[in-house]
Amino acid sequence: HPPRADPAVSVALTSSAAFHPLTPAAIRSFRDTYAEIAIEMNEVNAAEIIEMMLNGRADVAILRKPIEMPAELHFELLAEERMLLVLPVGHRLVSTRAIALERLANEPFIFVRRPGAPGMYADFIRACQAKGFEPRVVDEVPRMVTAINLVAAGGGVSLVPASMERYHQESVRYCRVSGDQAFHAPLHLVTRADTLSPAAARFRETLLQFTAT
Are 110 and 147 in contact (CB under 8 A)? Predict the structure, then answer.
């Protein structure tokens, strides 16, 4: 008989999902509780995550707002958090406590999404339109960290989940938008709708325990 393979779970996640405090805390707890289960981590963008889940290259995934929600996959909301504006250090708007939406009318925006797809920016775009302007999108990138790097380099401004504000603090500033109650970034757990391996089921249970605390 061939040697029995150790149990393992393959986890795909986006860079911004990895920054949310729930993610590392749940993974640490899972490692402590199920030391015999190996965790394979893959940090990729949301479109790649959906592809990996559909073709069986990942058992579970953690991402923000999925671009598509195929029927073969099951999506569960883990958390919601406020979105913050990211501005380069020295930007004329940084000094204000909360930035009025209309003051952003001429700012060059960098969004994390597929070109033309609203993604988690849908509420923000609608709010801008209600104020009489369309956000001027100069770049669309696959990862949140890339967007913040571009802001740090002076390429524009962006909007990211609040848990990202630990990143690049020496080069960018994170600010609230005034009246921004609608601008929230969800965090989702993705599993296959049909089958779940025992290891993947335990990983899901661990994550859901953290959402209940």
Answer: yes
- Calculate the alpha carbon distances from 176 to 14, 97, 104, 113 in Å: 23, 7, 12, 21
Alpha helices by DSSP H, listed for the chain, are: 15-19, 22-33, 46-54, 122-130, 144-152, 198-212
- How far apart, in whole angstroms, are the C-alpha atoms of residue 114 and residue 111? 9
Q: Looking at this protein, which amino acid is placed at residue 21? A: P
Place of tokens 């690049």: 168
Entry pTM: 0.82
Of 4, 2, 44, 10, which is closest to residue 199 (Cα–Cα)?
10
User: Can you give the length of the chain in residues?
Assistant: 213
Rg of the chain (C-alpha set): 19
Residues with Cβ within 8 Å of 89's Cβ and at least 6 positions away in sequence, in order, are 170, 171, 172, 173
What's the pLDDT tens digit per position in 103-134? 999 999 999 877 666 678 888 999 999 999 99
